[in-house]
Write a structure and sequence with these properties.
Blueprint (H helix, E strand, L loop, with lengths): L6 H23 L6 H26 L7 H22 L9 H30 L5 H19 L12 E4 L2 E4 L6 H20 L1 H11 L1 H6 L4 H27 L9 H14 L4 H29 L5 H19 L12 H11 L6
Antiparallel strand pairs: 1-2
Helix pairs in contact: 1-6, 2-6, 2-9, 2-10, 2-11, 3-4, 3-5, 3-9, 4-9, 6-7, 6-9, 10-11, 10-12, 11-12
């Protein structure tokens, strides 16, 4: 749209979108208008979209196979939570009673800290390991995720195996403040989607696709494949760390088991289900798989009460994931969207073709 080529117009549209997200968050967060259980599902869907779209940069766009994304999320979550908890003991005011400006500023600081720590870990892990390919890379990233989880289990400053919810200071217990709002979650969703979209449509983004299509041919054409893969890995880890910080300040209780191997597999499943390389597919896959456990928890609970059978929602969810992947690989191995994207321009263009209006 020519209107959006003007810098002031883009700024105005961005401000309007941010204001709309804030107002929508205020409406959805109102317990009288929107049930808190469904509001929680909406928030978890947003966090899952950030994770899936960020992992898509590595698994879908560059064609690598990372299954340690939960480790980066854990780093972001524990870093962000530790910053706000211990920061209140050192240099931050009590956030539960602070003004909204101070609270949101602390959340932004924790998001940046969590993202940067995760990005640094992504660089340190990716630089040596991304010279590997295929199954070898998957094993390295899996080992990294487990190393992070086991390390957290043995760090008493963040609760160890008991989990982390706060710090008992001499002045009283300081807990993880519930700072995450609908506005920040879906502003982060918008940010990661727009960043990925613009990156992949740029000239630099073509080198990401070149590695996926034929890494040897890319190297022959002068593409520094290791540098590009590390860049994708660092960007993916940064957004995973941001998602982890948002999760920490929404749930306000962290436990290492929330970031185990199954969590990484769940994020990979979101990307595979939607379509490798498709941002739209990652969004749909994340929304489906984030909402499914909560829906199953209600259905299985009701079915268990009616039939008197000990039905576990977690077991049913794992069976459903396995069955879903098998059916998907047999019927549509490229995923729901494949490598295609859904855009408003495409929808409008299709409509115009249907009514016979010539395209310009």
């Amino acid at each position: 749209m020519p209107f959006l080529r003007n810098g002031l117009a883009r700024l105005a549209v961005g401000a309007a979108v941010a204001g709309g997200l804030y107002y929508l968050g205020e409406v959805l967060g109102n317990r009288q208008l929107f049930h808190p259980y469904y509001f929680r599902i909406v928030m978890l869907i947003g966090i899952s979209i950030i994770l899936a779209v960020s992992l898509n940069l590595v698994n879908g766009v560059t064609g690598q196979f990372s299954i340690g994304h939960a480790g980066f999320m854990a780093l972001g979550a524990y870093t962000g939570a530790a910053l706000t908890v211990y920061g209140q003991h050192r240099f931050l005011p009590p956030l539960n009673a602070a003004s909204p400006v101070v609270q949101q500023g602390a959340l932004v600081l924790s998001m940046l800290a969590g993202g940067l720590v995760a990005a640094l870990a992504g660089y340190l892990v990716g630089l040596p390991s991304l010279r590997l390919r295929g199954d070898y890379l998957a094993i390295v990233t899996l080992g990294f995720g487990e190393i992070i989880r086991v390390a957290i289990l043995n760090i008493e400053a963040v609760g160890g195996s008991a989990g982390f919810s706060g710090y008992a200071s001499p002045q009283g217990r300081i807990t993880i403040p519930p700072l995450t709002t609908f506005f920040w979650v879906y502003l982060a969703v918008l940010g990661v989607v727009m960043f990925s979209r613009n990156l992949l449509r740029s000239t630099h983004g073509l080198t990401f696709f070149a590695i996926r299509e034929d890494e040897i041919a890319g190297e022959a054409m002068g593409v520094n494949t290791t540098r590009i893969k590390v860049t994708a890995f660092v960007l993916s880890a940064f957004f995973a760390g941001v998602a982890g910080s948002l999760y920490a300040h929404y749930d306000t209780y962290l436990k290492p088991d929330s970031f185990n191997f199954l969590r990484s597999i769940e994020i990979v499943t979101m990307v595979v289900l939607g379509g490798m390389g498709s941002i739209s597919g990652s969004i749909v896959g994340a929304a489906v798989l984030a909402a499914t456990p909560e829906v199953l928890r209600v259905w299985m609970g009701e079915l268990s009460r009616q039939t008197k059978l000990p039905l576990s929602p977690d077991i049913v969810r794992q069976l459903l994931y396995a069955l879903l992947l098998i059916i998907l690989m047999l019927t549509r191995p490229q995923g729901i969207f494949g490598s295609h994207e859904v855009s408003l321009r495409g929808l409008f263009s299709r409509r115009r073709r249907e009514v016979g209006t010539p395209l310009r």
